Amino acid sequence: MPLGPRMAPPPPLAGVVVVAAAAAVLLLLPNAAVSRTLLSLDDFGAVGDGVANDTQALVDAWSAACATGDRTFLHVPAVRTYLIWPVTLAGPCREEIKLFVSGTIVAPESPDDWPHGGRGEWLHFHGVTDLAVTGGGVIDGRGHRWWARACKTKHSATQNCTAQAAPKALHFENCQGISVKGITLQNSQQSHLTFTRCSHVKANYLRITSPEDSPDTTGVHVVSSRNVHIMDDLIATGHDCVSIVGNSTDVRLRAISCGPGHGISIGGLGENRSYHRVEKIKMDTLFISNTENGVRVKTIQGGCGTARKVKFGDILMKNVKNPIVIDQQHSSSNEFPCTSKNGSSVTVGEISYMDITGTSASERAVTFACSDAAPCSRLSLENVNITMAGGRNASAYCHQAFGRSIGVVVPDSCLAKEDFLRLPVATAAGHRSAGEDDR
Ligand SMILES: *[C@@H]1O[C@H](CO)[C@@H](O)[C@H](O)[C@H]1NC(C)=O
Ligand SMILES: *[C@@H]1O[C@H](CO)[C@@H](O)[C@H](O)[C@H]1NC(C)=O
Ligand SMILES: *[C@@H]1O[C@H](CO)[C@@H](O)[C@H](O)[C@H]1NC(C)=O
Ligand SMILES: *[C@@H]1O[C@H](CO)[C@@H](O)[C@H](O)[C@H]1NC(C)=O
Ligand SMILES: *[C@@H]1O[C@H](CO)[C@@H](O)[C@H](O)[C@H]1NC(C)=O
Ligand SMILES: *[C@@H]1O[C@H](CO)[C@@H](O)[C@H](O)[C@H]1NC(C)=O
Ligand SMILES: *[C@@H]1O[C@H](CO)[C@@H](O)[C@H](O)[C@H]1NC(C)=O
């Protein structure tokens, strides 16, 4: 459904209104000279009663939006509920698109209603550049029946369970310039919001919620992406609040309320003998409560790659079972390590923990369980004070963990001094370099 070229007045199409510069006031666009096209999902035949299949309407609306040479605003109207089957909305599109989700988008409830051999995703955006998803509405995966048949769920042993992965709810793949802002994502079948091989991403002002016992319902999952900002979000799910894997760099987290769930995780890295490289990660102003982990770096033996230049700062933990964790001792069922040379593993280094306070739900507040094959290097603890919830002293555990502590560190640091003969000298500059995208 391509629209007319820019110079000619567009033909009178149902649901298409070209608005002049005056609309800039409404929509905060800096460049008032660019005209814009406003579309509504309802004009493409959507019913919005939560029962009718509105998938084709969304596909048609997307095609129309994608084909205009204008900035396009596609509205999913408020109050109504649109039932959408698994769909891939592909780019590239001719101009920037804003998808205004003001109403509710829901998935089919029963896994049996999903097409067989589906690719494990629900709302899948592929190869799109310059897309903003916003509008104050709700994207609801209605995942309860998926969770019930997940093999991880308690009680499922007695029932039939399926090892087939549940779908990712909102998945952006090979995308650039994506902003997901000011909406609610809830009850996803699996991870709520996933970015795979994307760059220049923002995930801000989001409310992401699922029950505490829902399996694999990660909040934001970052896979091989760069320049990702995740800020001002509330995340309370059954799995990681945020997880970062693959070849990811320049990821920034700020002002996140996390919990319940499994906390913030870099990894697991190196699954199935794969190569993962996660670096230049900076997180601050995190409020983590009632979670399994606080901030964790986890690697899997047999994989290779590295996790380095990570800064965790200004974190308040409440009742977190494992507040600070590096876990390199997770073995996998890999037959062979990913390189033929000797037990290669994912190396962990240049990780700093600064201004972290609060309470641990378990006695061991700090765990640096590094591998013999590749000890953790250049770890740094500065102004860390974590006590047990009841006020008792917590403890720290180190295995093959090297680094330094500065200022108050409670429980006492157990890091071994760097072996400067073997490793390059850690410099102050080196520790700062993780914050290149500091704002
Ligand atoms: C819903 O509509 C889409 C697009 O037309 C179609 O592919 C899908 O099979 C439909 N689902 C059902 C259950 O009818
Ligand atoms: C398990 O699956 C079998 C075969 O599909 C079916 O006959 C049985 O009723 C199922 N049991 C439960 C508890 O769902
Ligand atoms: C990371 O990059 C390396 C080298 O480019 C590649 O071999 C590897 O498959 C990538 N890993 C992932 C998880 O994409
Ligand atoms: C690793 O391999 C197993 C078995 O083939 C598969 O189920 C799993 O999804 C793989 N994991 C990743 C991250 O590719
Ligand atoms: C393999 O590992 C062993 C024990 O860690 C070590 O002695 C040996 O030098 C390693 N070989 C290579 C080629 O790295
Ligand atoms: C650590 O925190 C506890 C609880 O807030 C506090 O009582 C204690 O004085 C702090 N310790 C240091 C050394 O600051
Ligand atoms: C708790 O730690 C403080 C400071 O490290 C120490 O003075 C105190 O004796 C410890 N208390 C117990 C019960 O171990």
From TrEMBL:
Protein family: Belongs to the glycosyl hydrolase 28 family.
Subcellular location: Secreted, Cell wall
Record-linked PANTHER family: PTHR31375
Entries under InterPro entries matching the protein: Glyco_hydro_28 (IPR000743), Pectin_lyas_fold (IPR012334), Pectin_lyase_fold/virulence (IPR011050)
Keywords on record: Cell wall, Cell wall biogenesis/degradation, Glycosidase, Hydrolase, Secreted
GO molecular function: polygalacturonase activity
Official protein name in the record: Polygalacturonase
Gene transcribed to yield this protein: LOC102705347
GO biological process: carbohydrate metabolic process; cell wall organization
